[in-house]
């Protein structure tokens, strides 16, 4: 079991390093092709924090470990809106001044509601799973969201505070050639896939060693590890006073996880909702996502340090309850 934990940690490290290299190379490649920094920030960089979830879920789907895939997606999204935002709020109270970020929150709630409804297929008298048709619907919704977001931001580039922060978050070098950028991206992809392979294998082995369901390992340990990029990004952004970016990172990552990562996973192989605890996990996902609703409804909303403490405690409490049941 100790070896599993050590190798799982190595897998997480490879996921983070590979994701960083992939984003760096892809960003430079996009820049060499004439893509604007703002568009790069909204697409390539945003994709980077969810790259570990995508890699782990893709490998889990290919290898038939749908319980790991399910737990990773649900657990990552729960961790984002509780642990990540909670810790960021402890660093500095989070204020939302961006209309763009506040308008993304309803999209996250819509994606969460769709995940909940489609996951509880028992209402329709069917097996509880996300099949390929569900996956295609998620991917279609993601394409519509991406088109809407880019169009919305470009049209408000001079008025919304989120726009400047996103553009400044892209760090590019004028000395990179397209060939070098492509090579770095490929190397990053290889490291990312190696980390995903190691993570999935060790997660399955750890579940067997501890005699717990694979979905629980995915919901807890794997989800925490793949959420580390979101945690690091939000803490750094908050420390710099870029609270819009911190919250936008979480909201965007959750949308990406549900619509693109879960959609892609379901297209590769249907993702079953675990019989034990799966429905409770989906309900918890919806409840925690609804905590962001006040940020959408009230202008100049803020998450205080006391809210941050409550969010972190809610996350830890849920994990303790979930592992114990």
Describe it.
By secondary structure, this protein is mainly alpha-helical. It has one domain (2-323): A middle domain of Talin 1. The chain contains 14 helices and four strands. The protein has a two-stranded antiparallel ribbon with strand order 1-4. A two-stranded antiparallel sheet has the order 2-3. Helix 4 runs antiparallel to helix 11 (243-268) and helix 6 (132-155) runs antiparallel to helix 11 (243-268). The longest helix has 33 residues, at 178-210. The protein starts with a helix and ends with a helix. The mean pLDDT is 83.
CATH topology: A middle domain of Talin 1
Number of domain modules: 1
Helix content: over 70%
Give the rounded overall mean pLDDT. Answer: 83
Tell me what portion of residues adopts beta-strand conformation: under 5%
Query: Rg from C-alpha positions?
Result: 19 Å
Low-confidence stretches: none
Give the class-level CATH name: Mainly Alpha
Q: Specify the biggest β-sheet.
A: 2 strands, antiparallel
Note the run of SSEs as H and E: HHHHEHEHHHHHHEHHEH
Name the CATH superfamily classification.
Answer: NCX, central ion-binding region
| Name given to the CATH architecture | Up-down Bundle
Instruction: Please give the order of strands in the largest beta sheet.
Output: 1-4
Count of alpha/pi helices: 14
Global morphology: globular
Termini separation: 22 Å
Q: What is the tally of beta strands?
A: 4
Which structural class do you get from the secondary structure elements?
mainly alpha
């Amino acid at each position: 079991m100790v070896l599993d934990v050590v190798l799982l940690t190595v897998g997480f490290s490879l996921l983070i390093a590979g994701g960083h290299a992939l984003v760096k190379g892809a960003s430079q490649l996009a820049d060499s092709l004439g893509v604007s920094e703002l568009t790069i920030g909204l697409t390539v960089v945003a994709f980077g924090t969810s790259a570990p979830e995508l890699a782990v879920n893709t490998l889990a789907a290919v290898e038939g470990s749908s319980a790991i895939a399910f737990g990773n997606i649900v657990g990552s999204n729960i961790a984002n809106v509780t642990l990540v935002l909670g810790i960021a709020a402890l660093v500095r109270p989070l204020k939302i001044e961006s209309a763009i970020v506040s308008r993304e929150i309803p999209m996250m709630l819509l994606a969460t509601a769709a995940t909940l409804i489609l996951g509880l297929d028992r209402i329709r008298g069917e097996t509880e799973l996300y099949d390929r048709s569900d996956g295609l619907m998620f991917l279609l919704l993601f394409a519509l969201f991406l088109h809407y977001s880019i169009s919305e931001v470009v049209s408000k580039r001079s008025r919304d505070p989120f726009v400047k922060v996103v553009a400044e978050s892209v760090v590019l070098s004028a000395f990179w050639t397209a060939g070098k950028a492509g090579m770095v991206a490929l190397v990053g992809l290889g490291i990312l896939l190696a980390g995903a392979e190691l993570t999935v294998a060790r997660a399955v082995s750890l579940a067997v060693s501890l005699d717990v369901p694979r979905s629980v390992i995915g919901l807890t340990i794997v989800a925490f590890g793949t959420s580390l990029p979101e945690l690091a990004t939000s803490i750094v952004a908050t420390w710099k006073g870029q609270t819009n970016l911190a919250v936008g990172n979480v909201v965007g990552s959750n949308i990406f996880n549900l619509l693109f990562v879960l959609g892609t996973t379901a297209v590769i192989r249907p993702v079953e909702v675990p019989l034990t605890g799966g429905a409770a996990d989906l309900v918890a996902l919806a409840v925690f996502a609804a905590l962001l609703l006040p940020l959408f409804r009230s202008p100049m909303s803020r998450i205080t340090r006391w809210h941050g403490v409550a969010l972190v405690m809610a996350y830890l409490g849920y994990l303790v309850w979930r592992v114990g049941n």
